[in-house]
Design brief:
With 174 residues, the protein is α+β, with helices and mostly antiparallel strands. Helices cover 18% and strands 56% of the residues. It has three helices and ten strands. It has an eight-stranded antiparallel beta barrel with strand order 1-3-4-5-6-7-9-10. The longest helix is centred in the first third of the chain and has 18 residues. The chain is elongated and about 45 Å long. The N and C termini lie far apart (51 Å).
Length: 174
């Protein structure tokens, strides 16, 4: 009897875990970067924020769009970025690998394209809310020495069930 109960409990846990990153779910997230938790050749203090929204196109595969803002303190420079990316959730407990590309605009004379890699973990604090620390590397294609950055970011994520947004929009227009 104990073995049967244990097997049922394991099946229930597996079912819940598999449902977190299933096809059709929507993801909304935001993160904070900088705060001297990164390094680049410019060695200047900075802070950045990013917002992401996307959808799981297949189980464990997330595609998203993102926008961001970064303030570099000493030089009083502000970067705006827009990009697209994807994540693959390696295991159902939240470990993920990410790849994205961002167009960065700073001034009329400086624009850049920066592909980035990240590895992180989605800690579920509720059924749909996560805290997501990640280690990232951004490669500058125009100023590798001063702009390429390695760092840590911390974010929040919301994983909405399938069709939750579509059903909310349909209800609003009835």
């Amino acid at each position: 009897m104990k073995k049967l109960l244990m097997m049922i409990a394991m099946m229930a846990i597996t079912t819940v875990a598999n449902a977190q990153f299933e096809s059709g779910k929507t993801f909304i997230g935001a993160s904070v970067t900088g705060l001297d938790l990164n390094y680049n050749g410019a060695k200047k203090w900075n802070i950045g924020v990013e917002a992401r929204a996307g959808q799981f196109i297949k189980d464990n595969w997330l595609l998203f769009g993102q926008v961001g803002y970064q303030h570099i303190g000493e030089s009083k420079v502000n970067d705006l970025k827009i990009g697209v990316g994807g994540r693959y959730y390696i295991v159902q407990n939240g470990l993920f690998l990410g790849l994205n590309g961002n167009y960065v605009h700073e001034t009329k004379s400086y624009n850049d394209f920066m592909p980035a890699l990240e590895i992180g973990y989605a800690f579920f604090v509720s059924h749909s809310l996560t805290i997501e620390p990640a280690l990232y590397y951004e490669q500058s294609l125009s100023d590798h020495k001063n702009r390429s950055t390695i760092g840590i970011k911390v974010g929040l994520g919301i994983y909405l069930p399938k069709n939750k947004i579509q059903n909310s929009v349909k209800e609003a227009f009835k």
